[in-house]
């Protein structure tokens, strides 16, 4: 087994350059490589006759090589290699560009299967730069791997064969045999062998089920171990008789039943001797910040401090103003600490905090720095937690005394995914919107109606309202999509020349973003052209129109988040989705969004359409490669792994038993890879 855990450079053909490429994919050893799962497969099993195969469409054809032609040098730096082949009825030409090795490997008289696009006419057909294998190859499903610069699919396939050979020589399985038998799972060597060299679809599904079980089990074990570790005594047990009447009396609105229920659940947690560990999940505009304010009030009345950490300065500032509005009239002192504050102001805030002169501190990552000292931190609140990376969930809570933890998320998460990502948390859900909120009207249109959409935006601004226009790209050259900077200039000079147009994107300095948002909120701008930096946390009740360009580029949940930036007041709001995509997936996505404003239903549909790997975008959310499991339909697998994790830890809480050593090593590796600390 030692060979599996040597540096990846121990494999033939892996020099320094290729090892660095593998490192970018998180692959350091042959063992890591074995878990680099194919993203898809080229299926060579059912070739089509050349005459009936569709032109300019991916297909597989079979042919015997009859002749190899001399190399053609078209121009400097470009060589073309051609071979003729026949399927017994029709001839065709196989063409390679600057790829002598692929051409040279073809042998006259041998029969191969080629995957690619056929071009040409009825009488003369060609297949360009195909992937191919011998027709008598025992494995006719060829894996296609996620790649990075410096790696090709054939390179990974060749190295994978070596890694599989090492595994065959030293069979290894970290899952206790009793668990494997209980849940009717194949062995790890069998699963890995099949997933990289599948012979048939049913066997492949069994292999994927085993690997998905392992990935989910490791995540559940880590979550439970973190949770059990945090079940130590907290220094901040609070009084259940703490009176919330003054807080409720000061609210400028009547709280929803869901808000009152969530506040009761959270405050009940705060009164226990073990630290609270709760997720507050609510759709856009459901009033999570008011619930957080109630928890901070409850904590302060018990003599302890609270901290609220947000992923961006815009969101932190928003929370600061909202919490100050709720709590300052009640005598609770609220502060703001962000990275862009002047050094002198940071020192003043930290000094006041350490002296106990602040009851609530709102901020960004600045809160978890060592020189931010809380003398009595009773409650830690993190907002949009999945944007931080799992490692930071623990960092703020390590400020001493084992404080209570509350995680807030405005991203509705399907129940399946919530159980996985937040398996160590109790969950409260805000499933009601405040009274008086009107559903946002949503329209999906093509670019042909862009000018009419602009006219509608102008009409709302003429009525004294404000609007957003969102683009997915930031700079020219990123793609052929509209770049937000040049697009904003076009709008200022054209369709919206008579209006005050602002620009906001993620590459601006924090102070610039704050200034633009402050101007928009103050009504000094009519239209804000922006990227998804406005997705979370910006609250401008007078903004009633959200127009989203290239809407097919966003996930359903992200579109729903963007839509939630309007509809914050009592006026009717509108969301216009512009797309020229004709794909079935795009149409289905926009149909779902136009038909409902229920974020949880949208999240379920998003999971089905995109899968869990893309659900949170590129954020470091800590999910292992559970794309192996079709989670939208595989609650049973989640349930099984949760039960297995409980059974294993009940018998061996720290996985110290020799039978669990390999399992523990996998759990530690998973959490180390995602930045979690302390599981060692």
UniProtKB/TrEMBL annotation:
Family matches, as InterPro entries: ATP-dep_DNA_helicase_RecG (IPR004609), DEAD/DEAH_box_helicase_dom (IPR011545), Helicase_ATP-bd (IPR014001), Helicase_C-like (IPR001650), NA-bd_OB-fold (IPR012340), P-loop_NTPase (IPR027417), RecG/Mfd (IPR047112), RecG_dom3_C (IPR045562)
Similarity section: Belongs to the helicase family. RecG subfamily.
Ranges where the Helicase ATP-binding domain occurs: 269-430
UniProt name for this protein: ATP-dependent DNA helicase RecG
Coiled coil location: none
The keyword ATP-binding belongs to this UniProt entry's keyword annotation: yes
Pfam families in UniProt: DEAD (PF00270), Helicase_C (PF00271), RecG_dom3_C (PF19833), RecG_wedge (PF17191)
Function: Plays a critical role in recombination and DNA repair. Helps process Holliday junction intermediates to mature products by catalyzing branch migration. Has replication fork regression activity, unwinds stalled or blocked replication forks to make a HJ that can be resolved. Has a DNA unwinding activity characteristic of a DNA helicase with 3'-5' polarity.
Annotated PANTHER family: ATP-DEPENDENT DNA HELICASE HOMOLOG RECG, CHLOROPLASTIC
Domain Helicase C-terminal: 448-608
GO-annotated biological processes: DNA recombination; DNA repair
Source organism (scientific name): Ruminococcus champanellensis (strain DSM 18848 / JCM 17042 / KCTC 15320 / 18P13)
EC number: 5.6.2.4
Highest rank taxon of the organism: Bacteria
Keywords (A to Z) from UniProt: ATP-binding, DNA damage, DNA recombination, DNA repair, DNA-binding, Helicase, Hydrolase, Isomerase, Nucleotide-binding
């Amino acid at each position: 087994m030692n060979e599996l855990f040597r540096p990846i450079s121990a494999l033939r053909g892996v020099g320094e350059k290729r090892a660095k490429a593998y490192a970018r994919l998180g692959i350091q050893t042959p063992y890591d490589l074995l878990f680099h799962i194919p993203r898809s497969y080229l299926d060579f099993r059912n070739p089509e006759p050349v005459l009936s195969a569709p032109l300019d469409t991916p297909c597989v054809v079979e042919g015997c090589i009859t002749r190899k032609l001399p190399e053609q040098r078209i121009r400097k730096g470009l060589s073309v290699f051609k071979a003729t082949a026949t399927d017994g009825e029709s001839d065709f030409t196989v063409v390679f560009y600057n790829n002598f090795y692929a051409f040279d490997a073809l042998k006259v008289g041998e029969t191969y299967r080629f995957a690619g696009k056929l071009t040409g006419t009825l009488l003369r057909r060609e297949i360009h730069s195909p992937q191919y294998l011998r027709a008598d190859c025992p494995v006719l499903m060829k894996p296609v791997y996620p790649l990075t610069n410096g790696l090709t699919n054939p390179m990974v396939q060749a190295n994978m064969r070596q890694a599989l050979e090492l595994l065959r020589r030293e069979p290894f399985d970290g899952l206790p045999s009793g668990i494997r038998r209980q849940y009717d799972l194949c062995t790890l060597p069998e699963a890995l062998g099949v997933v990289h060299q599948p012979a048939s679809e049913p066997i492949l599904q069994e292999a994927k089920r085993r690997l998905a079980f392992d990935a989910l089990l490791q995540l559940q074990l880590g979550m439970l171990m973190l949770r059990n570790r945090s079940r130590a005594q907290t220094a901040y047990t609070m009084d259940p008789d703490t009176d919330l009447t003054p807080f409720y009396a000061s609210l400028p609105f009547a709280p929803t039943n869901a808000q009152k229920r969530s506040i009761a659940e959270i405050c009940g947690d705060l009164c226990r001797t073990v630290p609270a560990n709760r997720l507050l999940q609510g759709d856009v505009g459901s009033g999570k910040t008011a619930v957080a304010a109630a928890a901070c009030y409850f904590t302060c009345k018990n003599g302890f401090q609270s901290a609220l950490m947000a992923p961006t300065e815009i969101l932190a500032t928003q929370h600061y103003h909202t919490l100050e509005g709720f709590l300052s009239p009640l005598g609770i002192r609220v502060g703001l600490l962000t990275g862009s504050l002047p050094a002198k102001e940071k020192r003043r805030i930290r000094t006041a905090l350490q002296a106990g002169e602040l009851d609530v501190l709102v901020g960004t990552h600045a809160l978890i720095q060592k020189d931010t000292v809380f003398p009595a931190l009773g409650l830690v609140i993190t907002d949009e937690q999945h944007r931080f990376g799992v490692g930071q969930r623990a960092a703020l809570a390590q400020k001493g005394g084992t404080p209570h933890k509350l995680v807030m998320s405005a991203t509705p998460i399907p129940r399946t995914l919530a159980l996985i990502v937040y398996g160590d948390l109790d969950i409260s859900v805000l499933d009601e919107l405040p009274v008086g909120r009107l559903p946002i009207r949503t329209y999906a249109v093509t670019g042909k109606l862009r000018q009419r959409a602009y006219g509608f935006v102008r009409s709302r601004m003429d009525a004294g309202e404000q609007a957003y226009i969102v683009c997915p790209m930031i700079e020219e050259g990123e793609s052929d999509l509209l770049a937000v900077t040049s697009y904003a200039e076009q709008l200022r000079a054209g369709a919206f020349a008579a209006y005050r147009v602002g620009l906001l994107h993620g590459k601006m300095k924090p102070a610039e973003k704050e200034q633009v948002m402050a101007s928009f909120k103050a009504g000094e701008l009519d239209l804000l052209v922006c990227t998804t930096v406005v997705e979370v946390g910006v609250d401008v009740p007078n903004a009633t129109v959200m127009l989203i360009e290239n809407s097919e580029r966003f996930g359903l949940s992200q579109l729903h988040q963007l839509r939630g930036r309007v509809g914050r007041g009592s006026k009717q709001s509108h969301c216009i989705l512009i797309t020229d995509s004709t794909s079935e997936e795009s149409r289905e996505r926009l149909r779902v969004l136009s038909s409902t404003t229920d974020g949880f239903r949208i999240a379920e549909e998003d999971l089905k359409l995109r899968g869990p790997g893309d659900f949170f975008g590129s954020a470091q959310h800590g999910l292992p490669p559970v794309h192996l499991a079709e989670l939208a339909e595989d609650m049973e697998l989640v349930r099984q792994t949760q039960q297995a994790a409980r059974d294993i830890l009940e018998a061996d809480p720290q996985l110290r038993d020799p039978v669990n050593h390999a399992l523990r090593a996998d759990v530690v590796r998973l959490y180390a890879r995602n930045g979690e600390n302390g599981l060692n």
